[in-house]
Design goal:
This protein is α+β, with helices and mostly antiparallel strands. The chain is built from 6 helices and 6 strands; from the N terminus they run ββαβββαααβαα. Helix content is 50%, strand content 18%. Keywords: Coiled coil, Membrane, Protein transport, Transmembrane, Transmembrane helix, Transport.
Length: 207
């Protein structure tokens, strides 16, 4: 299943649209993955990730797939079992929708996720790709069986390690702190969720 999508500028790493939006504590894990998508976008912008399309393994559950075209990067988080060629077909559909617009304004945006109108476009296209067993998606899978061969695969741990090495050679403390944040954010999120659950139980007991 397609879980999360982020669209951003490949040349400076600014995310301009995404779906779904984080709304409550149950979406905390998606917040972590969104931060990782932003990290990947930044790595692309600084030239650390050169391929125009790539799959990035995150853990046993999820992986990222991204596609770059005309300075815009399309990133989606999918379950590891989700067909990769279907994920890239989804990204191609997003690309086609962007190309229908006057894209010059995308290069004038200065605030993250300010292209709110495109969030709804992502939601509508994503809906078509949730079920891999529909006739349309089965047709895509049968037509694009060889696409997997053209996509490079990397592990997020290796990308973070390369970033760490770059940070060590960089005198900027901010760069090093970003790497630490990526490493410890999952543990922090789990701790926060555990504290909320524990606090809720105490409240219930009091009543």
């Amino acid at each position: 299943m397609v879980k999360l999508t982020v669209v951003g500028r490949a040349y400076d790493g600014l995310p301009v649209a995404h779906f779904p939006r984080v709304k409550n504590e149950e979406d905390m894990s998606m917040l972590f993955y969104k931060q990782q998508a932003e990290f990947i976008l930044k790595e692309i912008s600084r030239g650390a990730l050169l391929p125009s399309k790539m799959s990035i393994n995150i853990d046993d559950l999820y992986c990222f797939n991204y596609l770059i075209e005309k300075g815009i990067c399309y990133i989606t988080l999918c379950e590891s079992s989700y067909p990769r060629n279907l994920a890239f077909h989804y990204l191609q559909d997003l690309l086609k929708e962007i190309e229908k617009l006057d894209t010059n304004f995308l290069h004038t945006l200065s605030k993250p996720y300010s292209f709110i109108k495109f969030d709804n476009v992502i939601a509508n296209i994503r809906r078509r790709y949730l079920d891999t067993r529909t006739q349309a998606n089965l047709s895509i899978l049968n037509t694009n069986r060889r696409q997997d061969l053209d996509v490079m695969t990397e592990d997020i741990s290796k990308i973070i390690e390369n970033k760490r090495r770059s940070a060590n050679s960089d005198s900027s403390p901010l760069c090093y702190l970003q790497v630490i944040a990526l490493k410890w954010t999952p543990i922090t999120l789990m701790s926060v969720v555990a504290m909320v659950v524990l606090w809720s139980r105490f409240i219930v007991k009091d009543y």
